[in-house]
Amino acid sequence: MLSEKTKQIVKATAPVLKERGTEITSCFYKRMFSAHPELKNIFNMSRQQTGGQPKALAYTVLQAAENIDHLEALLPVVKQIGHKHKSLHVKPEHYPIVGYHLLEAIEIVLGDAASEDILQAWREAYDEIARVFIDVEQQMYDDDKKQAESWEGFKPFVVVEKHVESETMTSFYLKPADGTDLPVFSPGQYVSVRIKIPGDSHLSARQYSLSDAWNRDYYRISVKLEGEEDKPIGRVSNYLHEKMEVGGSLEVSVPAGDFTLTEQTNKPVYFISAGSGITPVMSMAKTLVARESNQKFTFIHAAKSAEHHAFREEAEQLISQNPAGRLLFLYSQDSENQGEHIINGRLNEDILKKVVQDQDGDFYVCGPLSFMKCVIEDLQNIGVPLENIHYESFASALEMQISN
């Protein structure tokens, strides 16, 4: 347990962290990777170059400082980050390395302002925060071990099929190289995929949602093409799109993530997605239809255009198989209207007000950060309780925190 003195010192440093947090975390990553280059195999190095990862860590550290006297308030976020750590095979022995270099960075950046009292308080605080993460992640590892088909870390897989879904998205069907059955996953979860790009000194790992319902033979991931080949962002997605063919190999983690479809209920379900956010939603929708329960559901997807719309035919087929389902597609760029369920424009509160008939239903929202925040706000404005809204963001878990 942290002493009251330690808590007060840590909370008092929050304004400094807010002002200079990214400077501290940038220094931290630079020094840690210099001392431990093997950790580049775990971290997303593209996000290091773009500054996204230092910014996300700075925000996480700030939230920990502001909530140091009631860390339980951060438990939902810790669990979400913990799932990602599990998929990357982060282990307890990594935490002391991170702690050492984080304290080192605080001392370097703050200089004389980093008194011994402040550094000691942060040593104690970091140990407490690390313990919370380690305990949460250990429970996840233990749960995985209960499944006979599960594995630890990364396992070799082979690409058995490659299918273009849209101008910017391609699906890869992956089977274990050893021919074993696959463990059950919850619809909405993701896996970490790890590859070695020629010319790189480190492995590259990325998270991709599983876009199909579970089966014991293969996993399907659907990868959106990001950025340009000569830019750091989208380096892995470009490699997969351009270089990875049927017969190619990569490594895959056990599925992780807590944005998942709830157990079967009688409540109506609304799936609301945009862009690549459709990938976990497809897994959820296909699983729901397979239940054959006639549970009412509405599938809403927003895309740039028909050409950028992945899984259009697959979603339409799902609805045709289930009389309880409804479908709505929205294209932000004008395109020829090819059905009563297709409209030009962006999703907004007025449209949701017309479509949502059951405010007490379950709502699953996934897409870019700006889309997510607007949809969640609009849903609340039309009377949907926040506790009924389940959401997944490709941004930082903490950045996506929504308050009543």
Structure description:
It is a single chain. The strands form two sheets. The chain has a six-stranded antiparallel β-sheet. A six-stranded parallel β-sheet has the order 10-9-8-7-11-12, sandwiched between helices. It folds into three domains: about 5-145, Globins (Globin-like); about 155-250, Beta Barrel (Elongation Factor Tu (Ef-tu), domain 3), CATH 2.40.30.10; about 270-395, Rossmann fold, CATH 3.40.50.80. The radius of gyration is 22 Å and the shape is globular. It has about 400 residues and is α/β, with parallel strands linked by helices. β8, α10 and β9 form a beta-alpha-beta unit. The chain has helices spanning about 5-10, 15-35, 45-50, 50-65, 75-85, 95-110, 115-145, 235-240, 280-290, 310-320, 350-355, 370-380, and strands at about 155-165, 170-175, 190-195, 205-210, 220-225, 250, 270-275, 295-305, 325-330, 340-345, 360-365, 390-395. Helix content is about 40%, strand content about 20%. The chain is built from twelve helices and twelve strands. α2 crosses α6 (about 95-110), α5 packs across α7 (about 115-145) and α6 runs antiparallel to α7.
Observed structural traits:
404 residues, alpha/beta, Elongation Factor Tu (Ef-tu), domain 3, Rossmann fold, six-stranded parallel β-sheet, 12 strands, oxygen transport, Globin-like_sf, transport, nitric oxide dioxygenase
Give a short overview:
This protein is of the alpha/beta class and 404 residues long.
Secondary structure layout plus pairing:
Blueprint: H1 4-12, H2 14-35, H3 45-50, H4 52-66, H5 75-87, H6 94-110, H7 116-145, E1 155-164, E2 169-176, E3 190-195, E4 204-209, E5 219-224, H8 235-242, E6 249-252, E7 269-274, H9 278-290, E8 297-303, H10 312-321, E9 325-331, E10 342-344, H11 349-355, E11 362-367, H12 369-381, E12 389-393
Parallel strand pairs: 7-8, 7-11, 8-9, 9-10, 11-12
Antiparallel strand pairs: 1-2, 1-6, 2-5, 3-4, 3-6
